[in-house]
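Inputs:
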Amino acid sequence: MANLRKTPTMHDVARAAGVSPMTVSRAFKTDALINEQTRARIMAAADKLGYVLDSTASSLRSQKTDFVAVTVPSINNANFADTVGALSEKLKPRGLQILLGYTNYDVHEEERLIAQFLRRKPQAVIVTGGQHTPRTRQMLENAAVPVIETWDLPAQPLGHVVGFSNAQAVQAMVDHFVAQGLTRIAFIGGDVDRDTRGLDRRRGFQAAMQRHGLEGRLIAAGAPPISMREGAEAMGSLLDSAPDTEAVICVSDLSAFGALSECQRRGVAVPGQISIAGFGNYEVGAICVPSITTIDPAPRRIGELAAEVLCDVLDGNTEHPVQRHITPQLLLRESSV
Amino acid sequence: MANLRKTPTMHDVARAAGVSPMTVSRAFKTDALINEQTRARIMAAADKLGYVLDSTASSLRSQKTDFVAVTVPSINNANFADTVGALSEKLKPRGLQILLGYTNYDVHEEERLIAQFLRRKPQAVIVTGGQHTPRTRQMLENAAVPVIETWDLPAQPLGHVVGFSNAQAVQAMVDHFVAQGLTRIAFIGGDVDRDTRGLDRRRGFQAAMQRHGLEGRLIAAGAPPISMREGAEAMGSLLDSAPDTEAVICVSDLSAFGALSECQRRGVAVPGQISIAGFGNYEVGAICVPSITTIDPAPRRIGELAAEVLCDVLDGNTEHPVQRHITPQLLLRESSV
DNA sequence: ATGAAAGCGCTAACAA
DNA sequence: TTGTTAGCGCTTTCAT
């Protein structure tokens, strides 16, 4: 049976085309010095044999892979998906392939992932956030691989940074509500600190409230990521426990939408009786009625900038660690007035 | 400088631990025959040197990778993310790593991805849908790698299948509306046939309408994937052109939510004046007010079954192509009565 | 523009 | 339980 034949190698193609294996190797490189007719003959032979280049062998010999390792907290999040999408599109022309892993908002799972990824000798490692286990930090240092931290401004960067201050962004939101004369303001977010960006947003909320001499109300919505349902439940307990609340800032648009829905179920007017704001500029917040005031952290821009930084590093144009800051935009919508 | 040292290899660890490289290799395998004290000594030496196993070399020598190639239409879709998430969790214990690519609903992009992935000699290829270019089909056949098609019931399967009939699921939805006495029913979906699952749903709609002797109204909402915004716009033109429509079935919950929002903006009562249904059981449809009637295709179940099939194949328990069918559930909610 | 020799780092196969 | 030998498929390097 034909299927019992071993997978053809470069050697087989070389013999079929009447050249040396080295010439076949050249034929498969776009920029190699080779006669076009020879290449055509080789490609025809390769096609006939069903030859597929073995990039494992190629990587081993050249001591160079085309992998870029990327970790995100969740595979199921439109914001991170946008960042990865932009990254992927920008790296595709360079022939770089993304090795994607998700940490489930857990630094130990991140450690496990990074350890696994480093065995593949990636060209770079791009992570979400600036919180890592000591072992992760050490592995990345030992690997001497370019590292880019995204979506955050780490206190002690591992290398390059493409991010923004989550705390600062939420402070702008608080200022907006206070400027409207609102004082009884609550924050709906995760009840544990696994999600460091969520934690930063909560801290930003509290810092801003304190600055205004106000007392912030914190509503715990469960373990990150906070879903629409958890947002709705949190809004329910807020309405039960502190019905005089005038505004609610949610850790994300998803929980904000859940909160909005709970208000609608209870006949609480938004805005009017209560204003709602989210974070992340997810599509749902732009489409729903009323639309939800939010902060746009430009997730695709983060991916594009990370790709830019990475290309500079790989081209040797960047010797020192780079910091590229995003400026999140406050988007005022119908849910706050 | 310490950093100028070459990356340590097994050889270096072996010398440091006073054993042969082969013993080091064994120490890094969980199930290898090795003295535990020797292993401890080796691990200590490896740790001190910052040694990281080179899985490229390992794969080349053993002619075996731990990659599973997976393609999905979009990285930014909660349903496919759930499938990939479940797949990933089930494959992790086996030490299999997912190589994820997204096709952007384009069979040619799928072809490009598969070609790239096959160079890595994956253990299996898992694709979304049953529509592929001839070249893709041929590459996969040549590679003699296990293939699983998901989310669909392909007419000509490439190998194993874990899916359901999108057409049939939508027919059940039409039957539901007709049973309620509704006759003027519209379908909002993509205007090109790139998304074969969307196309199947539209066909199911038309077939069911025809079976009931009714004429279906088709509203084109743009190129897949259909967003919430496009759903809203499509509902706008439907309300303009055919205001007597009694029910709308949307290609997904996202467009259904957009359609619902547009109704709310225009003061059209849902349900009452118009009933709305979606597809996919996305969270937004369960939380919004009114909640949206939908079909649950059990995306995580698809991933779990695919992982199950894959494990059976890798264990040699499955010689012949397998078909595992999902039965999507109709979820009746507030948007239809 | 093409070829020959060597070896990337690891592990299969066999030996002790 | 550990060691020795050989070679996976490719590309670097040097030669022609």
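Chain B has three domains: 10-53, 64-164+299-326, 166-296. Flag for discussion at group meeting.
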